[in-house]
């Protein structure tokens, strides 16, 4: 009886932890109707970490101390010029990278294994898809697109403290792009990485379809290309999914014949419209501004929180740029950026162990930062969890 009670208690604790991680990943911002929900969830994660800190691996400890120390030093350095913005960016960075390390250790300490990591990943995508379904349903019952923007989108922003990109789409749909869409784009490849000996299940295949919905409605060029590459790898690895591949092929063929004009319009709007020229021009302008800003302090940079008044992407977070990886140059300078690039040795270790799919996953995640600021986002928590778990606690064992 005592053993049974203990097992039930552990099971409940596991569920609480998993739900906390999923909500941190899928929630659009730190607050909900003004309540700081993510900070409450963070305290839950910290409690589990303190309870399991004795089992912390030397390798992960070194990375946690090194990364945290590096970011804190650059926050102190940037505080003199950028004050609260330096602190804000430090909180965001530690809330993504540092929290990813803590969650990874807890997952290991509680003996979850790759199966539970995949469960957390899939649950995050499923919650994201559920939010999008609700938003899409509310759009379909609204009087029109303008009414949808003026009423629902404004209310959504007030409640969540965040917004999503939107525009009318072919087939009477609407664009619903959220930052967490990237985790859905990477999901097929995540399944391949986390399934032992590629034992892919029907549930995995169903989630790949759910991820397709999230990505297509998100209407991001990068995410669609990323998802296409990951889906290709998934189909190669899914040796037993013959019927899934046949159904997928039939769905594409069927859509091409019956919805040819709508699909052509969909592709033209996303890949060949003037809207793309405008967004590409903004990114090009950011590149010029960031390089010029870097030249003003090339050795040590300006520190965390740094931004150029010549181009501000967000009034609330002016230090955040779509060209995030490039923005690290003026923030950290050559010295700091080289230290950041030294992290590439993890990729070298992975290549040496012939974990090519993991290298692909890393490459897709890193390259995404040329289009949006993903690195310092808590929405990428499950991405960091997957990467760190496979690096520190699986076969790769980076030390």
Q: Which secondary-structure class do the elements indicate?
A: mainly alpha
Count, helices: 17
N→C terminal distance: 42 Å
Q: Mean pLDDT across all residues, rounded?
A: 85
Number of strands: 0
**Which descriptor suits the 3D outline?**
globular
Write the H/E string, N to C. Answer: HHHHHHHHHHHHHHHHH
Describe the structure.
With 399 residues, the protein is mostly helical. It has 17 helices and no strands. It has helices spanning 2-26, 37-52, 58-82, 84-109, 113-140, 145-160, 181-185, 187-194, 202-218, 221-237, 242-258, 260-271, 274-294, 324-341, 344-352, 356-368, 381-392. Helix 3 runs antiparallel to helix 4 and helix 5 (113-140) packs across helix 9 (202-218). It is globular, with a radius of gyration of 22 Å. Residues 1-6 have low confidence and may be disordered.
What are the salient characteristics of this protein?
399 residues, mainly alpha, 17 helices, 0% strand, globular
Task: Tell me briefly what this model is.
By secondary structure, this protein is mainly α. Helix content is 71%, strand content 0%. The longest helix has 28 residues, at 113-140.
List the helices and strands and how they pair.
Elements: H1 2-26, H2 37-52, H3 58-82, H4 84-109, H5 113-140, H6 145-160, H7 181-185, H8 187-194, H9 202-218, H10 221-237, H11 242-258, H12 260-271, H13 274-294, H14 324-341, H15 344-352, H16 356-368, H17 381-392
Helix pairs in contact: 1-2, 1-5, 2-4, 3-4, 4-17, 5-8, 5-9, 5-17, 8-10, 9-10, 13-14
